[in-house]
Design a protein that fits this description.
mainly beta, four-stranded antiparallel β-sheet, 361 residues, globular, single chain
Length: 361
């Protein structure tokens, strides 16, 4: 019996090395570096943001095939993208200092309206639910050192919050909003009081923050840095004993005592199991169980840096982009650099939490 993409369906393996040989390539990928990708929370549609100034929306079928369904453009490279909760709207965050939104429910497939503006490139955007607000709002984070909240029916922000430094990453889950900035600041906001910081900390990692991603239950977040480390951090002080960090995305060449250290570019949590993935400049991805502090699976190098990842709504597809990540400067980005999105069928025990050992309750 076969499952998604023709993969064997249930056989649980004890092997910690995963298989990428059956991963499927997305049809007609972007023409330049891929900055972000996000699955719809309501359907099998995938939005992909690129340095070619476009956001593309694909439909994924059960065999792993993909069809381009819509596309809209910015005036400069697109650095991030996100979906509304109802799956009808896609937003791109751009180096043109604008966020632009396509409403797919209108039947439109090639134009977007500007819904946000900053004084510098917008690095990331997310839809948020603010308590006591009837409709979803958009939050944008920019290199102008601010985050702004937008009611999509208005042309000016509802609120603006100044951060210590340029915003590099942000994520939302329930009432938790986490913002990672330059100089390793991490700002935590309770969306019940969205205009101020609930708490600000320095990253537990010693080098530049690359990504922050919230736990599924909103109790904390994971941080990835350029030094090949990941940190698990809880919001409340009472849970601080569960905080920890670990090394990942490093390799030691044969005959050398020095490890090559790679950036952790993306962290995604599995929607069902609460386990998570890390992906890095070394071109590998791994699945982890944070509660057991255990690596579930590691995967072979995919042919280039991995710049973005996401699970679909059911957690049976893991998408990852293989693209240049700018870690070695503009001169290394050549016309021969690969740009592709791969779809990995999640099967068996790949992302299931590690069974608890006998005798513990």
């Amino acid at each position: 019996m076969s499952g998604l993409f023709g993969q064997p369906s249930a056989a649980a393996s004890t092997n910690t090395m995963g298989d990428i040989s059956k991963d499927v390539t997305l049809t007609a990928p972007p023409e330049d570096g891929i900055s972000d990708l996000k699955f719809s929370p309501q359907s099998e549609h995938l939005a992909v943001a690129s340095w070619d100034k476009k956001v593309r929306i694909y439909e994924i079928n059960a065999s792993g095939g993909s069809d381009g369904k819509a596309l809209f453009e910015h005036e400069q490279p697109v650095l991030g993208c996100c979906w509304s909760k109802d799956g009808t709207k896609v937003v791109g965050a751009g180096a043109d200092k604008a966020a632009r939104m396509m409403d797919l429910s209108s039947g439109n497939t090639n134009t977007a309206q500007q819904v946000a503006a900053h004084d510098a490139p917008i690095r990331c955007a997310r839809f948020v639910d603010i308590p006591q607000q009837q409709s979803q709002m958009l939050v944008t984070g920019s290199w102008d050192k601010t985050i702004k909240y937008w009611d999509l029916r208005q042309s000016t922000p509802v609120a603006s919050v100044s951060c210590q430094e340029r915003v590099y990453s942000l994520d939302v889950m329930n009432t938790l909003l986490v913002v990672g900035t330059a100089d390793r600041y991490i700002d935590i906001i309770n969306l019940s009081d969205p205009g101020k910081f609930y708490k600000t900390i320095q990253s537990p990692l010693k080098w530049q923050t690359r990504v922050v991603t919230c736990f599924n239950d909103g109790s904390g977040f994971a941080v990835g840095s350029v030094e090949g480390r990941c940190a698990i951090q809880y919001v409340e002080d009472k849970d601080s004993s569960a905080n920890f960090s670990f090394k990942c995305h490093r390799s030691t060449p044969t005959g050398s005592q020095n490890a090559n250290v790679y950036s952790v570019n993306a962290i995604s949590f599995h929607p069902q199991h609460g386990t998570f993935s890390t992906a890095g400049s070394d071109g590998t991805f791994h699945f982890w169980d944070k509660d057991a502090k255990h690596r579930l699976k590691g995967y072979p190098e995919v042919g280039g840096p991995i710049t973005a990842t996401d699970f679909n709504r059911t957690g049976n597809i893991f998408a990852y982009s293989v693209s240049y990540d700018w870690s070695k400067g503009y001169a290394v980005n050549t016309p021969q650099t690969v740009n592709k999105v791969m779809l990995h069928a999640v099967t068996g025990d790949e992302c299931k939490p590690r069974p608890k050992t006998g005798g513990r309750k």
